[in-house]
């Protein structure tokens, strides 16, 4: 698209990023910003790894072109090219000078790209049990292009998420957001392949057709899962 989308993000936001999208992330607040990136890396430059494709910096694409090529592409003189390319940091995260002002977010830019799982209508609401919000093509159509769906599950203390699996052979990548509990995963042959205690910050994978169940501790537990189907 010719216009840059500038999105104000907040806790609970799920953002769908299509393949090839160029992004920058800026935290202008004093509080820490934590972003969890999950995605399909099978088509990456190195399968199984995220491909970091830097536009600027010491390992950015423009450092590989001669100043003549870049000056013609950007329509500036070669001394300006050398200043711009040569002054870039090679780090992925940098501290900006206070005088630098980035574009302000636009409310309309959130449409189509963002769905807030904390504020969304509940798909499941069990009294004294838990709540579920499902992210799919109905509430964020762009996930159809990406091929991934998601859900946010919050269990009350001592509650259980019954054994379940994806009938369309999707696999799940589950990140524990808060709390703690126990998880068991059983394979298609009826053998238990995982039994462990999980807590905030941990991540585990449920393979295709494998069945998973969770029981949370008295303080409750919540998790966010990426599922390899947009449905």
Automatic annotation (TrEMBL):
GO terms for molecular function: nutrient reservoir activity. Keywords: Disulfide bond, Seed storage protein, Storage protein. The keyword DNA-binding does not apply. Residues 120-231 form the Cupin type-1 domain. The keyword Disulfide bond applies. InterPro entries: 11S_seedstore_pln, Cupin_1, RmlC-like_jellyroll, RmlC_Cupin_sf, Seed_Storage-Functional. It holds the Pfam family Cupin_1. Belongs to the 11S seed storage protein (globulins) family. This is Cupin type-1 domain-containing protein. It comes from Linum tenue.
């Amino acid at each position: 698209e010719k216009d840059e989308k500038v999105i104000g993000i907040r806790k609970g936001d799920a953002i769908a990023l299509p393949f090839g999208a160029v992004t920058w992330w800026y935290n202008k607040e004093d509080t820490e910003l934590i972003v969890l990136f999950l995605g399909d890396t099978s088509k990456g430059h190195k399968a199984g790894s995220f491909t970091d494709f830097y536009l600027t910096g010491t390992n950015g694409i423009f450092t590989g072109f001669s100043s003549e090529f870049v000056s013609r592409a950007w329509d500036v003189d070669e001394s300006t090219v050398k200043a711009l390319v040569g002054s870039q940091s090679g780090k992925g995260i940098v501290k900006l000078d206070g005088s630098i002002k980035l574009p302000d977010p636009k409310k309309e830019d959130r449409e189509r790209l963002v769905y807030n799982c904390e504020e969304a209508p509940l798909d499941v609401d069990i009294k004294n049990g838990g709540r579920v919000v499902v992210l799919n093509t109905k509430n964020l159509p762009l996930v159809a292009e990406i091929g991934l769906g998601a859900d946010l599950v919050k269990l009350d203390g001592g509650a259980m998420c019954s054994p379940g699996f994806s009938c369309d052979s999707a696999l799940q990548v589950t990140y524990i957001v808060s709390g703690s509990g126990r998880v068991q995963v059983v394979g298609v042959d009826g053998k238990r392949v995982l039994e462990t205690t999980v807590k905030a910050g941990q991540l585990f994978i449920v393979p295709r057709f494998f069945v998973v169940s969770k029981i949370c501790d008295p303080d409750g537990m919540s998790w966010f899962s990426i599922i390899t189907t947009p449905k």
